[in-house]
Structures are given as structure tokens and as C-alpha cells.
Design goal:
This protein is of the alpha/beta class. It has eleven helices and eight strands. The radius of gyration is 24 Å and the shape is elongated.
């Protein structure tokens, strides 16, 4: 009598390649045998990363995919996701080709997903205080600020280090991502957290260290923090609309609405009467002051109650065991000759 035996899980690695010829071969060499496929995405690299890998790499797991034009790290990763899903991979790991991420940590990123404890895992370089000192000061301060904004916009209040690009995702969850809507540039890592929250996917931080040597960083925190702040506000408003007014309307929705109304009324009412009193050079009546003060304090209390509910509402139950993977079409930006695939 024959019995069905589940095949071992298939793990794929996606490596966006843009000016990483000095380090990418070393990264590939350190990827262990637990990985079945490696997709190197030459993202319109001026150094010819794809040709370089094909000429010098003999690892049979490697497939080189080329973008005719540079699409950014997000665009490269989504191309890799689509290729890995088409190859029937179960878990997709994304690491950079610049040598900052240790491939030896890969099993730690994959294990929570295979054990059914997470849908998505990401690295956290801030877990050990001693290691934080090794991070360049600008990155350290910038990541702290971006982490708080990412918590509020994504709804994952228990994760940190949102710009960390060492990630893993279950292919079934990845198949439900809006491939053509996710940010293609450096906002990709934090934008995908927002997208995952709309799916109610479970995210888990993985402690790690980063290696900073002679690699070139293309992300300048000082230049993108303003752009990131605007996008975080946009995503935060979208998430609240989806989660608290479109998909569901829990008590927190009422707390948010009342809190905003009271706070707005208190500020406008108090500000108007303060201005009128200053122009007339008279004292504002105590009753008017109390009305404004009570409205502002009550509004803040309602908003704090909403934030408390939102923190408790962080997704905790993985979704990949109960959903079926769906086919993923090629991203629109890569159709009509925008991509070339070659086996290593």
C-alpha cells in the first residue's frame, strides 16, 4: 500500500544585482545546500553583473535574469519573487549581493516559516547593543527614526529596523502581493510591510549582524527621510482606512473618529477664542478655556485608546497554512522584452 509523502520544502534565494561584482560571487559561494535555486537579477547594472556571474559562477542553482532598464531594488526583488513562485519554491529569501548579509544565517530566516510560526521574516540589526556601535552613526540615527514611522504606517508595532533587506517570505503569501503596486525603489522594504498587513500576514524579526566593509551604499538616509515620511503617512492612512473602516469596524474605529473630532474641535475652538482675546486685549473666560482643554484632553485619550487597540491588533496567526498559492503574472513593467532569463 503506497502512501503520499510530502516532498522536502524548496527554498529559493533572490539576489538583486547592481554594481556588486566585487562581492556577489562570494555571497553565492556561501549559500548553503539547503537552497535549491538562486535567482540573480541584473537590474540594468552598468557593470554587467549578469554577464559577470555567468562568466565566473559555476553553481548549477544560479539563474540570471536581466532587466533591460534599472527598476530599483523593489522591482528586482519582485521579478525574483515571480520567478521563484513559477519555479514552485516554498520559501523565498532575499539577500543583497554586496556582502553585508551573512548567508549562513539563512536557515534562521527560513525556520519560522517552515514551522508555521511566521509568513515573513526580516533581519533586525538593533537587537544587540554592542553590535549597534558598529553601524555608521548616520545609518543608526536614520534607522531609529524610520523604524518608528514604519511601525505606525505598517501596523507591525513589534518589528524594528524596517530598511533591513535580509528577508524571507512564504511563496503562497508572496503570490497575493500586488506586484505592480509595491514601491520599486528604496522604500520597498517598508512598503512591503504595509502590503503584508493588509493581508494580515505574520511578521517576525530575526536577530542578525551586518558587515560593513568596502561595499558602496546607494541609500542615503539624509536624502530619503523626507520622502519616506510622506510615504509612511500615505500608507498609514491607507492601512487605517482598510483595516478600520472598509474591512471591519471595531470599537477602535469609533475611538479614532471621536478622538479626531474632539481634538480638532478643541484646537480650533481654543485657538479662535485665544486669537479673539489677544486682539481685544482681554482675558479668555475660564469656561471657554475649560471647554477647549477638556475637548483636547478627551480627544488625546480616545486616540491613545485607538493606538493601544492597534498595537494589540498586530497579526499573530500565520496565514500561509490555510491559503492556496495563486499564479503570479509577470509584472507589467517587465513585459514586451523588458526581461531576459538565462540558466547558469
Amino acid at each position: 500500500m503506497s502512501s503520499w509523502v510530502r516532498p522536502p520544502p524548496s527554498v529559493a534565494v533572490v539576489i538583486p544585482c547592481y554594481r556588486v561584482t566585487r562581492h556577489v560571487l562570494g555571497v553565492i559561494d556561501r549559500i548553503g545546500p539547503e537552497v535549491n535555486r538562486i535567482f540573480c537579477i541584473d537590474d540594468g547594472c552598468p557593470d554587467g553583473s549578469g554577464d559577470f556571474i555567468e562568466a565566473h559562477c559555476r553553481d548549477p542553482r544560479v539563474n540570471v535574469i536581466r532587466h533591460a532598464q534599472n527598476r530599483g531594488v523593489g522591482g528586482a526583488v519582485m521579478t525574483g519573487y515571480a520567478a521563484a513562485i513559477a519555479a514552485d519554491s516554498d520559501v523565498i529569501v532575499k539577500i543583497d549581493g554586496d556582502g553585508q548579509m551573512d548567508p549562513a544565517l539563512l536557515p534562521e530566516f527560513v525556520a519560522p516559516i517552515l514551522s508555521g510560526n511566521a509568513d515573513y521574516t526580516k533581519g533586525n540589526r538593533f537587537w544587540e547593543l554592542g553590535e549597534i556601535r558598529r553601524m555608521p552613526p548616520v545609518r543608526r540615527v536614520g534607522n531609529l527614526g524610520l523604524s518608528f514611522m514604519a511601525k505606525a504606517s505598517s501596523g507591525y508595532w513589534d518589528v524594528f529596523d524596517p530598511t533591513n533587506g535580509y528577508t524571507a517570505i512564504h511563496a503562497s503569501v508572496a503570490s497575493y502581493l500586488p506586484f505592480d503596486s509595491i514601491s520599486q525603489r528604496y522604500f520597498f522594504e517598508t512598503d512591503i510591510l504595509f502590503r503584508l498587513n493588509t493581508l494580515r500576514a505574520t511578521v517576525k524579526d530575526i536577530p542578525m549582524t551586518a558587515h560593513y566593509a568596502d561595499e558602496t551604499s546607494h541609500l542615503k538616509i539624509s536624502k530619503v527621510i523626507g520622502e519616506f515620511a510622506v510615504k509612511h503617512v500615505r500608507n498609514g492612512l491607507k492601512r487605517i482606512g482598510y483595516s478600520y473602516f472598509l474591512r471591519d469596524m471595531p470599537v477602535a474605529s469609533i475611538e479614532l473618529a471621536i478622538g479626531l473630532l474632539l481634538l480638532t474641535f478643541g484646537v480650533l475652538f481654543g485657538g479662535y477664542h485665544w486669537y479673539q482675546s489677544s486682539v481685544a486685549d482681554t482675558s479668555t473666560p475660564v469656561g471657554t478655556i475649560m471647554i477647549a482643554t477638556i475637548a483636547i484632553i478627551s480627544g488625546l485619550q480616545f486616540l491613545l485608546a485607538f493606538v493601544s487597540y492597534d498595537i494589540a491588533n498586530t497579526p499573530r496567526t500565520p496565514m500561509h497554512p490555510v491559503i492556496r498559492r495563486r499564479p503570479v503574472p509577470m509584472p507589467n513593467a517587465l513585459k514586451d522584452g523588458g526581461i531576459r532569463d538565462s540558466a547558469g
